[in-house]
């Protein structure tokens, strides 16, 4: 809807509302806006769903409701949402009727018709309303942010969870990968957009505009997916360094001491940061597509590139190890159930392999109280060796008890995409966060295009994790 | 998906295919591409739906299928679609199970969960596949055109009708009005776009590039809705003339004999042509939004405009009148059932009012054989008067027997939008088509913004048709 | 200048003018607009040059004058221009003074200062005024068109010639090649631009929008230079066909019977039409730059291209031959002076070589009265052979008596650019124009990048014309 | 020129150069790059000016020279420029000849022709070369920066001054106001552009990206002029605050404590900062056009605006006052010659008016040693009153001895543009720079569109300075 038209309608509705309120007050009837707002919302929602005044007016009315919603405080918003779920949920009597007809039908064509009817009956009226909010000037973003709110609130009441899941379905349809546009982001991009990268970067915080500018130099690349319904908002973005040979230290990439490489001569692209930018799109996955689209773009523009690799954190390693140490301190058998892996060896032993147990012993004094080292540089060569063995073992064997997938979430993401574990990097991330996650170690996942499908199938089908010889040897 | 990536995958799949075929032939086994293609499609669809090789590969595989589909002839396409509906329809056993659980559940939260499951179970796998086709370079347009095909074929087999309706649901979600962009089209627009206007114009054919240029002069406006998924394709467009006073003759507007009006000084905008451009979006309505968005745009840019009116054909009038004449010739009571209207008077009489009967008598000799006139200019003053009365009566009283809505489809469209019947124009369209539709008469529907909601509600709620005093008088 | 601001100022000036006129009339003084307009122009020009009211007002006043000028008829325009040259020419007394000082000065630094002063003194005030016209909304185009007018009028009065040459200097500075932008024109370009191609095409007339569309198919290219000061106007454009092997027939290229070539696989780019679009830029040359920029663009985008060649008309051949025939008929020695070439042989003989004389004899009956053939198809094999020999000889040897450069203007253009005469094509252009120019023959000029500089130097320095062996053989 | 083409030519030339060098070294001849470079430049310049290899090659050769020049250090650049002026200056013998012919000619038409020839003869060859540098990728910017260098170096050798002035003429032609584009700059502009605002802001330094963002909020405007030849570089920009009533404190505007105003309701636009961005365009004036274009834009977009005013520094006040105090301390008559104004009264008195002398006495203890106050807040009410009187007197009466124009440069700029001195603001700029310039006072210049032309004429013609009654009273 045009802003003009919406604004005018909005103004009309507001005037009408003020007149009503004033006349009420004038008649000495008192007037409590809050008390009555629920009634007001109900009326407006009903008018909107009944398409009173025609489709265009209904759309404008929905926009008005959206505007009002945006001005509510958190309590008000929840009240509104509760109203939605309480009074504009699926009509279960109607569902019952259609279900009965469907069960009775024996002809496929008739069933097909009734299925269409059932689908319609199963769309809750509140979804029709939510959908109309996309006519608000920033309507799509409004719904994405509403889902972000609902994700935080969903445990407070079952209704909010229902709404959240329904909204997810709506958004998943709209944000189909086919509608997204891949754009390169450069230092020539709008400042208003770059500011959002600073805000949304989730892996290696961007500390200043200078830091950001360094990440957009000619030997760097940044790509993001955008949706035409919210063109100013990146959905997900990736930062890439063009270098020679696989990079092992993120500090070197970000602090840019080394000389820049001529992009046309670089042989390796390092994906060193991938950030989801929209909390409200959680569970709607773009990362796999982003990486592969960017690989295709880079191949086309820079034919010299031979390797595509990540430089990734290992967020679960230290906490996993802490659990092993704690278990051992409690006299329990380590390894299971906490790390119940899919590997038969592990299952048979119902515990960690002996050499891994030994490695844990070697590293035990890194934990509180009185850790033997507080920075990777202080770690003794022996401990370092043990840590590297342990971490490789962790990456290849530690699994989620329920699904059998890799325990480490970042590993799981790249393995699902078909990458392989390529190289462990001691001192890959020297800062405090790196120490807390993985004693400063980072790992490269290599995207070898020839093997991506095979690796994916092996991992998803049989739980096998692809790795380089070097990593496998360390894990043994 | 990037073209590059798709193309490469496509090439891989084609190579594999050729190898298979060649080796088959080499082994002396014979090879009939057509015979085996069904099997091949089945395998590819299954691989695609199982996300074999990962989501990106599945998407690429879907694109490959889409490419293949596009190269099929009509019979091949239908064969493919039959395969889809026959083997990738809803899993009815699963639906049965969920329905059983839902019926057994008594808790609302549990039911809500099961409803989500039921919604998922009701999505036929073929829809998942169709959805993935939007990653084709022109994927959205591909699906829109597929639906256009299905609309033509749907009576041939029930399955095609099911597909068509399902595709409509998918497209209706994507083409939500909130995602459309209104753009003005001018003589500075790309020729490739303007060429489509010439092709799609459905009301007053554009005869040449000169004719088109005339419709884009400074005192004309043309607006269209576009969808970001098919940015080169107008969805619907409207042609507007800026004039002084309500225009009554479309020939004057198109042939441009008169001097151009300074747009800033015009007081009236005449919407003289609205064309839907995509057969595959039939039943997904944009016209109401288009008109009102354009009115808002015009108001903002040209504050001098005071009136917004159409100059519209009356496509149903002559055929309706022919029916009356035929009925009378057969000795039947005219008026009903053919024109069963909502008006109480008409219903009570179970026939046309006496003066309308008389008017029909006056005009009877316009029909074959040996019509008394073959062009509006030849009509006698008395007959003209009778025709004008009849036509006004027709616009205000002739109704669809089932719905009670206006018999004339164009009238129904504008009345639903909240317009009123403003003025009948003798000689409004002097060409053959105009004569065939309505003896050359045209009508103005006036969009008076202050009355739009009221008119809509009256028409939709009570079937009352708003009209100017002049039209009402003529109809009486 | 913003339109708004200009318009306002314009309105003010017009009101003032009307007031003046009305009061004059009111006082019974009579008022002849035409009689007084010279006085009015003089006052406005003086105010403008004196920067009365400040620089912005002066610029607005110049714009007003420009607007008035545009509304004048041809006589009025000439009157205005005569006023300019008569009263706002160089101040020759001032020039005399500076010249005297310069002559007296013996120090280089002092001379340099006086030269700067002399340059300023030599700028006629009318040029300052003309320069300010570029603030008109279409100011640069205005000046370009003004020069086109002056080119037509310059023989009428010496002052107009002075103005024309001065304007050329001004435009040459503005249209420096460094400011031009090369743009590809496609079927997606604005119709308003494509319409200009149709109007400006000077070599092979574009007969319709369909014809134009054919020239913009995927295996065709069209490029134009644009200037940022008149972004809607092409300055010069070239049409290119992507084919395999050098093309010899323009009909085949334009009528498109053959199958399209995949542009990525074509090995040859044929430049078959180059048109200057702005008469007012005559003598300011862009063609050489255009061809070489386009070659560079094509090489980058289509690495498969191996050859770059024109397919060109031979506009001077038939008229040159007519002269030879006429001379012979008058019993004169042919060859000189009409075709006084640079070649020593020709000069020594003071006539055409014997075999060329013989060839002319063979072709003589192609001329009126009673030509033996009226279309290339009717020419006998013997005559054809003689014509081909003659034409090759003409291309390589016929020269302008004054400059010794190639007699054929198209040949001169491409030879100056460093191309070589590659191949003569019988039936290259089968239409009437082709017959009138060169009995339907066309010629390819080949741009071999390795030889361009050498060819240019040979031609410009020693008058040597580069040609393929085949052409040389035919000419011998 | 396309980068590609240039690069290739460049590479060719470099290869040739390396070959030459290598072969020289191989022949044991020794090779000093620096020793020979002058010879090399000379050859290249000659080749370029002789258009050797054709116009396109000459242009490429010039570009190569430009590339080489850019890599030189300051000494190398000067050496190159000295070569240019020493060997490629005007051909004075040719000028002499043409001057002699011109003097001898008595016919106007002949003189006009000779003047054209004289103009050509007066163009030094080095200018032809410089002009060709605009084909470098950033060629226009290259020349602008070259002039900035020359402005710094021009006193070192007369030749550099000649070059500088000649380059100014060239640039003045190219940067004609008619070619400039006004663009609004917002927070959505490219970061690479915004970064330049931070660097170029010359009045109130932009301290950070946050500070910059504050200046681009919805109730602020920023506009700049751009030239199509260097589209990434602002030429001049202005910052505007939309407020209610004339603002007196720049701190309030920049530090944004107050609430933002709805731009549509603001009645006043305050121009609080105007910065020239290109040192190399010094003396080519855009400020007057910028202000008036921005006024026109603002009027169109925000019809509520009633007043357009600056909030300006008074950079010359304190130094002027220091001179008065010093003169008095030396026992001289104050006022003249330092402030020789155009006003008859002042001239007659050959000194400052008595009350102004008294005001200076009242303020004398603000100067070193031991100033009585170091910040505007510490100034006593009496001294403040005296300072305000003095400052108003200064603005209206202090003049340049040579030109009689306003002594204060900012005043002179706005008065020339037709503004009037509107209001003096105590504490207008509370920071150290404000104290050093004008004891923290600032002044508003009001642009009253109705009076601009009149004010300009009065100031430029009679030296009369327009001022508000309040300012005049204070100055009295």
UniProtKB/TrEMBL annotation, chains A, B, C, D:
Pfam families: MCD, MCD_N. It comes from the Bacteria. GO terms for molecular function: malonyl-CoA decarboxylase activity. Residues 88-175 form the Malonyl-CoA decarboxylase N-terminal domain. Gene3D superfamilies: Malonyl-CoA decarboxylase, catalytic domain, Malonyl-CoA decarboxylase, oligemerization domain. Residues 178-448 form the Malonyl-CoA decarboxylase C-terminal domain. This is Malonyl-CoA decarboxylase. It comes from Thalassospira xianhensis MCCC 1A02616.
């Amino acid at each position: 809807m045009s802003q003009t038209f919406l604004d005018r309608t909005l103004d009309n509705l507001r005037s009408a509302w003020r007149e009503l309120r004033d006349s009420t007050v004038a008649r000495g009837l008192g007037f409590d806006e809050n008390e009555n707002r629920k009634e007001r919302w109900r009326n407006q929602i009903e008018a909107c769903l009944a398409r009173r005044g025609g489709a265009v007016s209904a759309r404008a009315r929905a926009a008005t409701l959206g505007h009002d919603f945006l001005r509510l405080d958190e309590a008000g918003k929840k009240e509104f949402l509760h109203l939605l779920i309480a009074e504009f949920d699926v009509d279960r009597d109607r569902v019952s009727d259609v279900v009965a007809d469907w069960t009775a039908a024996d002809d496929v064509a008739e069933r097909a018709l009734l299925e269409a009817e059932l689908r319609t009956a199963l769309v809750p009226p509140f979804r029709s309303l939510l959908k109309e909010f996309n006519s608000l000037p920033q309507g799509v973003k409004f719904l994405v942010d509403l889902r972000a709110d609902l994700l935080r609130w969903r445990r407070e009441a079952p209704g909010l969870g229902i709404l959240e899941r329904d909204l997810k379905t709506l958004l998943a349809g709209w944000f189909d990968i086919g509608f997204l546009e891949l754009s390169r982001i450069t230092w020539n991009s709008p400042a208003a957009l770059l500011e959002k990268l600073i805000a949304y970067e989730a892996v290696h915080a961007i500390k200043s505009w200078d830091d950001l500018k360094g990440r957009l130099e000619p030997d760097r690349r940044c790509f993001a997916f955008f949706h035409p319904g919210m063109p100013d908002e990146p959905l997900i973005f990736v930062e890439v360094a063009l270098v020679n040979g696989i990079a092992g230290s993120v500090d070197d990439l970000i602090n840019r001491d080394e000389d820049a490489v001529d992009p046309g001569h670089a042989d390796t692209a390092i994906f060193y940061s991938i950030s989801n930018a929209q909390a409200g799109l959680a569970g709607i996955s773009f990362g796999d597509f982003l990486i592969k689209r960017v690989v295709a773009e880079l191949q086309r523009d820079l034919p010299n590139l031979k390797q595509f690799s990540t430089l990734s954190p290992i967020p679960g390693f230290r906490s996993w190890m802490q659990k092993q140490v704690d278990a051992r301190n409690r006299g329990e058998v380590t390894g299971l159930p906490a790390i119940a892996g899919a590997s038969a060896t592990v299952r048979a032993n119902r515990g960690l392999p002996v050499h891994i147990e030994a490695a844990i012993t070697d590293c035990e004094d890194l934990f509180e109280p009185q850790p033997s080292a507080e920075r990777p540089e202080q770690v003794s060569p022996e401990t370092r060796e043990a840590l590297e063995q342990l971490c490789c073992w962790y990456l290849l064997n530690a699994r989620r008890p329920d699904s059998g997938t890799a325990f480490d979430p970042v590993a799981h993401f790249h393995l699902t995409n078909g990458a392989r574990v390529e190289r462990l990097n001691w001192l890959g991330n020297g800062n405090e966060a790196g120490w807390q996650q993985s004693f400063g170690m980072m790992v490269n996942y290599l995207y070898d295009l020839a093997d991506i499908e095979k690796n994916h199938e092996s991992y998803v089908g049989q739980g096998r994790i692809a790795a380089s010889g070097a990593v496998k040897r360390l894990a043994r």
